[in-house]
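Example with several molecule types.
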Amino acid sequence: MKILKLDDSDLKTLLARWYETRDLFSPVEKNGMAGWKRIEPLEFVEPAKGVPKTSLKTFFFPQPETLLEYSARPGDEGAYVPRPVKEKARERIILGVRPCDARSVLLNSLPFADDPYFKAKKDTTLIVGFTCKQPCSTCFCSWAGGSPMDTEGMDIAMTRVEGGYLADILTKKGEGLVDHLLDNREASPEEKEQLKTLREQAQGGTGSEGGPAEILKKKNLMDLYNAPFWQGLADSCINCGACTFLCPTCYCFDIQDETIKGKGRRIRYWDSCMFPLFTQHASGHNPRSQKVQRVRNRFMHKLKYFPERFGPLSCVGCGRCIRECPVNIDIREVMRDLLSIP
Amino acid sequence: METLFSQATEAIKREARALLESGEVAAFLGFAKGSIPTVTRPFVARSPEETDKLIWNGLCVMNLANYLPGLLKSLEPARRPGEPPPEGPLPKVGVIATGCWSRNMVIQIQENQLIRERLVILGIDSPGMIDRRKLESLAGGKEIQAIEEAEKKVVISGKGFRLETARQEVLRDNCLTCTHPSPVILDKKIGPTMPERHVHEPFARIEEIERMDADSRWAWFQKEIECCIRCYACRNACPLCYCPTCFVDDSHPQWVGKSVDPVDTAIFHILRAYHCAGRCTDCGACESACPMGIKMRLFTRKLQKDCLELFASEPGLDINSPLPLTTYGPEDPERFIINGSKQQGTQGGK
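Resulting structure tokens for the full complex:
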């Protein structure tokens, strides 16, 4: 696919054009906290540094997501018979997405490959990513298998260079967004070379070969499971869901029927492996009744079970959990501890 | 440089080590340095060597009382449900306690969640703890890479900046209105005794909210909780919240919806606050734990004000005076039952 060179006014024109038929979203400051918001084209500013506080998963796993609807009035025709929700499928573009967040969509689509709700969201969403110039001290995307210059999961990847952006058009959908510019804005060979160099510099050399995912996959599961350091983590943990709810690749959910004033809906909403009820059986038995078991599961899932089943870690290294954990549980330390087990 | 904090850190290390070495306690609960400068890590030392990790500074914001019931239970020999505890004394825990944390321990003892004899409390007067969000907003979006703290000032620094501020400017809101920095129960005192504090208008912000009309108050409340993600960090950081199954988690019966529907989120916050009525010590752990920066402490602060005005009660100060909502007396205000009663009541009793 092509690489275009766009100046700032090109970008403005593009945003206005996209806005005609699609919804635009981007990170914005809200109460001093960066979150995601629907924006007008002129509101867009490239985020200075880092990622918004909440992750991109809000777009793909709405909190809550209505799966089915039903009438809960006994007299109604078809009462209590669930029917699919008719959703308006307006396309949306998410702007200003960092490589880590874009990659999370790709990682989540591994377990959710056949999930119709996730697929529907993915089909109607375009991601215009912005590569990272300034990593935060809590960022570790390269270690987690990505890179600050990564383009995985994006439709278009913008990289800030002098005089504008180099826009790497990565998918057919992305091409559709800029089709009128394809022939007159192509980047020069020098500019393409510049982008290539930036990418090579960003690759820390930890790629998938010999990265933590590959190493942890080879380690004996029970050695990791029975490691001595889990108790120490559980000592600090308060078992809240801050880490899981801010994490872009924590996707666990629960399903419930809600009935309000004769209208019923089946909703899917976020759940967390930190909560004791997450694994509570109907029998009353709870296989993870202890805090230490729950803490261990969160990390084992991300760093061992997921890689074994799908390949990469279920972590993009965005550092949200590190920044916001009220008791400073740091997944990088857990990774180091796990890697140090023979 | 020797500071109040480095002296206290050394004293805590020394005392904790002695307690573990002598075998008087099986574990010592304190704080360790965090991997990022703005957050410390509640930490359990189980051997004398591990006490080297203990620290003390203004970012020790989690209420340690919160960990005690679980930690003590985990140290007991395993037994089946309903089986009585073994004969003889059970293992003890050493713990650091400031004014509010020690009051929470008193409340836990009153509510039969803790046994005083199983605690060895190192009391320390709270210097007022720091609000990391205030530091972050001072840094104006730049990343804080180091914090230096002295008795009266705090210096934050990072790439290309170094800012000094008066400690008072970055204290947590609850610490700014705190009048009880000294521990109420303790076995050994660490560090100097802070002078008694008088706070001018301790409920100023609450009175401001009370003066709003109902609609604007509701609008304020909804705006405040708008970004709640229902992670329950506030609840889980709270030493008053020890129910085995919280009402929000219960599904049989279900009291409240599970997602971030504004009505459900509102119910969660209102009920959480009311469950703390007459028990909250305003330790501020809820607010410090919240990843979204919600000021939910104002909800419990209002109830604190009501308890003070209606029952002249500040919970946890005296182990022998029952919590206001667990007792009754002929002098209790009853304006909420008897219309037009001459009882001295306040707005809170409406």
